[in-house]
Design brief:
The structure is a homodimer of 653-residue chains. Chain A is of the alpha+beta class and 653 residues long. Among the domains of chain A are: 136 residues, Butyryl-Coa Dehydrogenase, subunit A, domain 1 (Orthogonal Bundle); 135 residues, Butyryl-CoA Dehydrogenase, subunit A, domain 2 (Beta Barrel); 143 residues, Butyryl-CoA Dehydrogenase, subunit A, domain 3. Chain A contains 23 helices and 15 strands. The longest helix of chain A has 33 residues. The relative contact order of chain A is 0.10. The interface between A and B is large, with 82 and 82 residues. Chains A, B: Belongs to the acyl-CoA oxidase family.
């Protein structure tokens, strides 16, 4: 697998050698063992890829359940649960396992996510010992399947406005759960249509006539395979993809559950009907509860990146085998990957995939730390939540874009179901929406930046102005905005002085970092000023926000891209000298420069890029593509997608 | 349906009223009647949309055949054939009918395309009376189903390198058709797996030991429902979408067909085995034959635009009904379409859809003229071929991008198969590849521009240098490149003098046109210079081309966008005063400015946009979005997508 084409070009450039197994070990990192277990399990159950096409919806759902339970028996899916309940007690490993599972059939992945991440995660994080004892042992083995019933037909992103109500009845010491109208039915709920026996239901808690906001309760939804009394279940039916997951709708008609059904880690109701919570403020309580579920976003982001790897592995191998036109009359046809355009289509995507891989390492590490430690560092939690939201958005958009590009790059063959693209594309499409719509998530990221910017998070929270992510607390967020402060920060970003960015080498990663840092700071200050101006002019906050919204989204994107580049640069800097370091350095440069190139209009508009330098960056991107081209197959092979998962013998060889 | 929100804003802007039926009539134009027939047929067969989900592959293929035959009986699908064979004798109407069919199930569309466009088109255009008499009557009714067997496993874009061989045997006066190796099997051929009885097979013609290049012959592939002797057929199996079309692979093992099977409009073989053609040069002959099939590209481009209309109709109506977050505490939640970001996501796509609609009118008109007249104007044919290639590429990419954006803009509901997105997305995905891979098509466009630029087409052709689209005839294409000529042309583009583009109003369509014309000219000259320099330096032509390839693609894209904008501007200018003209004017401005905005980096890099003006364009795009927002529902309703085709009651109301 070692590339033997080492050669010295006219410019003295020496093409690096990549030791593919060594690069795989570097990528797998501390979780190599669990990743290899998942690879083994995927290969053992490879037939599920065919069955996704061959079986009808009902049969495929049963098959996926079977595979999930079999995988659970190997310990693969329970890494995040405490050992005393049959888990592995290692949150980071549970995310790594989930990411790796994304190499395979994505219905299996999402069923695992629903069962162990969402349902299991809610029981673990929102419940207390009584819930853990009651549910975790059977949940971890997959014997007890459950639902995470948050989303409603009428409310996806705005969870605080859910319409399901759970009213406490002190006489019977029960909660009465009711769906108020069609818009309040639980919808798109995994495990609902077929396999779920209980559901964690998010509902407005009403105690003593007072609404205490959204809380979660465990509600049995099936008894002996039939809907429980008062529960009505509909099947969401066939979907674009993920048809091995049984999504459905749940209506509750005065369903009674005991007081103990309330997942009471953060709030409880006494038998007499007194509501109490250690967190005084309702919004803070709500966001604390939601915050414990952040692992879902970390998982999906990583899964998106790994789904992209499958597509890129196929398309890159294909491009290294497939010949198209003759370069000159009578000559042999050229390999696709020798065309400049084809390099431009695939290689920056490979670079971005590597970048997102290392960024995922960082967010997974933060998650592991927050959830393995004492867990009381609010700032670390907020940082994690913002970062998880951002990398989820970028990782899943990357998956959608990459899979599409790879399919097109494989022509008609890419359209046949026997290859992976059909399944990858339709199964992964919803990743940009579930676990938080990507645009809403970026607004969440931006909100954090704007409030940090105003250094005023606590005040805002007390004013109750940060409740609505989309509302962005326009009125008050920006009072402390200071143009002076901004300029100082920008200057700090340019280590070689104010003109340094016009002189530094394009391949100097300090330059690349300074560029993306500057972009973020400048965009943030601009969005803040625009919001403040609107408020100062006493305009309607909704209108002000609406007009600045694309700017706000751009801020968040710039922020996350900066984090991603920092993760990549830091990783490369820490490597020992050798072929892998050189190759990853090329990829890091390609990621950085193609990111700057994609937004070069902004950099020119804001005086940080001259026309000449902008053109030079495009030339450098092309040059990097040519240098990386001979390494391309090794670079995708190093991801270690099991060959059985490629399912594209005609394409990938 | 008339919008009653006429109001005068603070700036004196009066919001136009749109008369929706009048706008529909304007869009349908001269083909209103056939379009309405298709709409009626689509509504009558609306159940096929459900059946696509409910039936297995085999049953759905039969169902689609049935629908196609029933539609054929209404005259809808035969408009392009001569009346004496049961056709409508109106090429333009046949394209309009096909475009409208794209509102419905796309398997039906593609089966119609295979049968009447590709198979029927080849018989009509490449055959002579004997073939017309033998095949057209039953072909037009759909009684005789046939294949268009061009693509091979190993050769998609490079048709001249096909591996199937048809050798003339003068003793028996037959051609012997043989597949040489797995790479030469015909692949992805519609109607092959199940319904085709005959195939138009493209093969290397060998006569008297001499290869005469690729020609087409009619070969029976099934007799009594079984593969004909010597013919082996495989099923391509399940695909990402279009599973109502029976694509398959065909191998020929010494299959004998009579001499008369050769479609002999452009070349023939005498009984004795003498090859003769009125077109002396093999390349010219080959491209003349292929050129007659241009209607396929015109059809697919228009179909892509109409598929995008379906997605936009659903997403726009949804965004006008769905509420998300409260704008301020306690206020009602805002409609999605009132958010600036959501406007930015959907409205430029609506504008571009209108632009591509009017550009499609132009290319359809050119097609009609070329194929209805005496048809000997080579220049008109080449212009048509280039334009068809370009609008096909832009129209189908637009479909892929728009359908994806609309799905994401409808959240989880957009993922359910009961809505149209799942089918639209998977069925239309291959549009970017079939009837010519989009990137290859843009290279074809660029080749035409570069050769026109050198004013030297004939010479090149004689040198045999234009055979390979991808090769682009690097060595000789650019000898006449003249930088001086370029500058004069650029100056001509700026009617108000050299500085005029810095002063003209952004909403002046002459300014917008000058910008996109300048971009095209400048890019073209630049690509030409880079190619010439590489050749002058005696570098390997393949390498030279590879390095300039992305530039070449950019030239083609700029060219086609210029044509699209010209079509839109001209259309709007020709309209009578009124609400529709005002509304289309806003859309035309939005299309022009969002197109310039998307490439503003290029304009800044090339001195045609100052930083201030670039920012002003972005502000203007936002402003146009706000003006168009109240018109959005009327604008999508005017496309006249039959309500039965939306299949999204929960989304579109």
């Amino acid at each position: 697998m070692v590339n033997d084409d080492t050669s010295t070009g006219p410019s003295g450039y020496v093409q690096p050698r990549i030791d593919v197994p060594a690069l795989t070990a570097l990528l797998d990192g501390e979780y190599a063992e669990i990743r290899d277990l998942v690879r083994t399990n995927l290969a053992a159950h490879a037939s599920v890829l065919d069955e996704a096409d061959e079986l009808g919806v009902d049969a495929f759902r049963e098959r996926v359940r079977e595979v999930v339970v079999e995988m659970a028996a190997t310990g693969q899916t329970g890494m995040g649960f405490p050992p005393e309940y049959g888990g592995g007690g290692d949150v980071g490993a549970s995310i790594a396992a989930f990411e790796t599972l994304a190499f395979g059939d994505l219905s299996v992945l999402v069923k695992v996510g629903v069962q162990f991440g969402l349902f299991g995660g809610a029981i673990l994080q929102l419940g207390t010992e009584r819930h853990h004892d009651a549910y975790l042992p059977d949940l971890v083995t997959g014997k007890l399947m459950g639902c995470f019933a948050m989303t409603e037909t009428g409310h996806g992103s705005n969870v605080q406005a859910l319409g399901t109500v759970a009213t406490y009845d002190p006489r019977s010491q029960e909660f009465v759960v009711t769906t108020h109208g069609e818009q309040a039915r639980k919808d798109y709920i995994g495990n609902a249509a077929r396999h779920g026996e209980v559901a964690v239901v998010f509902a407005q808690l009403e105690v003593g006539g007072r609404s205490e906001g959204v809380h979660a309760l465990v509600v049995p939804v099936r008894v002996g395979g039939e809907p429980a009394p008062g529960v009505r279940i509909e099947d969401d039916g066939r979907k674009m993809g993920l048809n091995g997951v049984d999504n459905g709708r749940i209506h509750f008609d005065g369903v009674r559950v005991p007081r103990e059904a309330l997942l009471n880690r953060f709030a409880d109701v006494t038998p007499e009907g007194v509501y109490a919570s250690p967190i005084a403020h309702p919004n803070r309580r709500f966001f604390t509860m939601l915050g414990t579920l952040v692992q879902g976003r970390v998982s999906v982001g990583g899964a998106g990146v790994n789904a992209a790897k499958v597509a890129l592995t196929i398309a890159t191998r294909y491009a290294d085998r497939r010949r198209q036109f003759e370069a000159a009359s009578g000559a042999q046809e050229q390999l696709l990957l020798d065309y400049g355009l084809h390099q431009r289509r695939l290689l920056p995507l490979i670079a971005r995939t590597y970048a997102l891989h290392f960024a995922q390492d960082v967010v997974r590490g933060q998650l592991h730390e927050v959830f393995s430690g004492p867990g009381t560092d609010d700032q670390a939690r907020r940082r994690l939540e913002s970062r998880a939201a951002g990398t989820k958005a970028l990782g899943t958009w990357h998956a959608t874009r990459t899979i599409q590009e790879c399919r097109e790059a494989c022509g008609g063959a890419g359209y046949l179901s026997v290859n992976r693209f059909a399944a990858l594309k339709s199964d992964s499409d919803i990743f940009t929406t579930f676990e938080g719509d990507n645009h809403v998530l970026l607004q969440l990221v931006a909100k954090g930046l704007l409030t940090d910017y105003a250094s005023d998070f606590e005040d805002l929270d007390q004013l109750g102005m940060v409740r609505h992510v989309a509302g962005l607390a326009v009125e008050t967020v920006l009072e402390k905005t200071s143009a002076h402060k901004l300029l100082e920060r920008v200057r700090d970003l340019l280590p070689g002085g104010d003109e340094w960015d016009q002189e530094a080498g394009l391949l100097d990663s300090d330059y690349q970092l300074a560029m993306v840092r500057h972009r973020e700071e400048h965009m943030l200050a601009g969005a803040a000023r625009r919001l403040k101006r609107g408020v100062d002019q006493k305009r309607d906050p909704g209108t002000v926000f609406s007009q600045v919204q694309d700017h706000v989204i751009a801020v968040a994107r710039a922020h996350v891209e900066r984090l991603v580049l920092e993760a990549f640069v830091e990783k490369v800097r820490g490597l020992p000298e050798g072929g892998e370091k050189v190759a990853l350095g090329l990829l890091c440069d390609l990621f950085a420069l193609s990111t700057i190139e994609a937004d070069r209009a902004w950099f020119m508009e804001h005086g940080r890029l001259t026309v000449q330098r902008s053109k030079a960056i495009s030339r450098e991107v092309n040059d990097l593509c040519r240098k990386i081209r001979p390494l391309a197959v090794d670079l995708v092979d190093a991801w270690g997608v099991p060959p059985e998962m490629l399912r594209a013998p005609d394409l990938a060889g």
